[in-house]
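tool_call: predict_structure(chain=1)
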Amino acid sequence: MVTGDWFVKKVKDYFSFLIDEFGYVLTDEEIAGNYYYTLSYSDGIRSVSVLYENIEDYFTATVSILQNGVRPNYDDKTKTLHLNKLNEIIRPSIKNEEVLSNNGYFKQFQAENEFDRKLLKSAKEIRLCLKHFGEINL
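tool_result:
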């Protein structure tokens, strides 16, 4: 079972590039008992949300385009992009050298288990996608 404190610590570590490189701020941190954890970061234009539902074993990372500073509806596929959709759109424009450099950045982290590897993988992918976000048409 993933605990809320563990999840928050890992997300803050793995996604620290949002603050350090992209100028995002942590806008939401919620631990709802032992069943729901979420952290959200924003740069005023976009919001990155990382969510885990323990009971359902459901994990997702999304990038949302803010509407007047407010996150759009989670189901709005034109403004809330799940990581797999972002990868589908952006991945073809990413050069192999960028992937290698990005992997080098994340070498500082060691995943402890399968879920931790999934969390770290999502951080790697979001970092690459955000570097190319301005190049896509939504």
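agent: DSSP finds five helices and five strands in the chain. Proceeding to next step.
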